[in-house]
């Protein structure tokens, strides 16, 4: 079962990283639907970043090395997040102690990607090819509870995307929620 986008009110969808006093953390809900998710174990070589929008690899120094092998001249790592089982966390109010993101979403809207480059690096880099690539892996053991599922971007349709503003204390970003569409089956892995 995957959680697709659901509006909870008539306002623009947003999630506050640090909610203002008296405001809910988000006005985005979940629209639960069953989907077929295919296991990629033993099939990792079939998936390439440029073709499928995801690829299975290892972590930090390895990630930097791999991204450079894939043609990256400069690698800048930002937004390191460790997802934890919140039932066992001691300090749940710490923003660094966050559980898995349970809604179907895309982490960066195009314009937000451009703003990320300006914010973290330099505007002049936008004259070159720039890509924001998410890297994820389980830390110690295979994930049995709330595993990551990825969709091949070629099975998405622009009409199914809903802009959502993540609101940080010093800036606003943009991600996409995904509406469930029974006419289109996404290729989940």
TrEMBL record:
One of its GO terms (molecular function) is oxidoreductase activity. It comes from the Eukaryota. InterPro entries: AsaB-like. Belongs to the asaB hydroxylase/desaturase family. This is Uncharacterized protein. It comes from Ganoderma sinense ZZ0214-1. The lineage of its organism: Eukaryota, Fungi, Dikarya, Basidiomycota, Agaricomycotina.
